[in-house]
Design a protein that fits this description.
Oligomer: single chain
Helix content: 55-70%
Number of helices: 2
Mean pLDDT: 84
Low-confidence stretches: none
Number of strands: 0
Length: 87
């Protein structure tokens, strides 16, 4: 990635992190409250939102996950920086 990172990049990355945090918390809650139907609904809603945000991120900025969780453009673009964990 040769162009400077915009505020939109950081906002999208922050939104992904926030939604994934909610998913982590809901997972812990549902481990002890598996019959909470509203929590299951919230989990499914945020799970869908997380997938959509990650798809948007990868379309705009490149791969987000390794080990087959994200596709690569041709040529192999994992060498393109910055990686999400580097910002």
């Amino acid at each position: 990635m040769n162009e400077p990172l915009t505020s939109a990049y950081y906002e999208l990355l922050e939104e992904i992190q926030a939604v994934d945090f909610v998913l982590c918390e809901l997972t812990l809650y549902l481990d002890t409250h598996p019959w909470d139907e509203e929590a299951v609904r919230q989990f499914n809603h945020h799970s869908k939102q997380s997938r959509q945000l990650k798809k948007q991120y990868e379309k705009q900025y490149g791969p987000l996950f390794q080990y087959g969780m994200s596709y690569s453009d041709y040529p192999w673009n994992w060498k393109d920086a910055p990686w999400p964990w580097q910002v």
